Amino acid sequence: MTLLKTIDPKFFHAEIPYKPMGKYVHFLTLRVTESYPLFQTDGELNKARVRAGISDNTTISRLAMFKRKQSTPERLIGRELLRSYSLMTAEECEYNVSFAMNNPDCIIYGFAIGDSGSEKSKVVVDTAFSISGFDESHETFTLNAPYESGTMSKQGEVTSRINQQDHIKPQVFFPSIVTLKDPTEASFLYVFNNILRTRHYGAQTTRTGRVRNELIGVVFADGEIVSNLRWTQAIYDQMKSDQTLKTPDPLDEDAVIQAAQTTIEALMSEEFIVHTDFVGAAFTALLHEVKTLTGSEDGIKQVLQQADRDAKTYFSRYVEKPKKSTTKAG
């Protein structure tokens, strides 16, 4: 059953193939911070010293959003939906504890269970980098843990529970390309929906970490495309040329989106692979159709149920171990 009318079925497999078949779909995403998230390791914000642009050879520090900081929240949203619509239970499949191996999350995003088996992720996510430099993208806060009275002292003694922590500022942009290998229509919609729905990334996600994913397009291709870093550097060059980098003010979202669209189109024109791009106006109809489909209970059920059928078919053919015969000799 075909769920989408705006995409030619030739871009999808009828079922999830066992071996790589050279079909890729790339989700072009701008991750926009909307609060004060933490992307950190060992108590410090992740950052990297890199070239500012492709043309601008100045070296700057950029915030880094490692791949697991991106993929884990998105797959957890998908798992939540599968449980919500009774396609998976917490008892049979618990993330990083006991994988059921036969549901869309396990088959699409992969799993590893020691000697019991493993499945390589079909979703490829690489480290994303902030467009703006580290210095103008973070802020240091003093944190405290007051007593129930609301003060920092008890019986005349002042608590030592005071600490400082760097946080990423709101309106910091991380261009990120999420790649799905060998998609079926259902796996495409499953990953697409997870990206659109995920709202929190990084540490302390119950209290902060609000991030919005602004998709600007998808690219169907027979290979991988440009890296996150090179796309980010191209956006930086474009915004510098357009004079829309107004340090230390936050970047204007409309200017970022315009630069992201312009640069990805230019970068894709330099690629030597076969690709079909849905960017800008060409992407609007597809995005509207996907949001309409996944925004209704019947629509999201259709997507999840088809993704579940695809996953269980793949599991039974390529993952599940044959049952040993119990027939005894006469």
Short key terms for the protein model shown above:
330 residues; 5-stranded antiparallel beta sheet; 3-stranded antiparallel beta sheet; 24% strand; globular; alpha+beta; 7 helices
Q: How many separate domains make up the residues?
A: 1
**Count of DSSP-assigned helices:** 7
Strand line-up of the largest beta sheet: 8-14-1-15-16
Order of helices and strands: EEEEEHHEEEEEEEEEHEHHEHH
Query: Distance between termini?
Result: 48 Å
pLDDT < 50 runs, ≥5 residues:
none
Got a strand count?
16
The biggest beta sheet reads:
5 strands, antiparallel
Q: Can you offer a commentary on this structure?
A:
- The protein has 330 residues and is of the alpha+beta class.
- It has one domain (9-140, 162-257, 266-319).
- The protein is 32% helix and 24% strand.
- The strands form six sheets. Strands 8-14-1-15-16 form a five-stranded antiparallel beta sheet, with helices on both faces.
- It is globular.
- The chain starts with 23 loop residues before the first strand and ends in an 11-residue tail after the last helix.
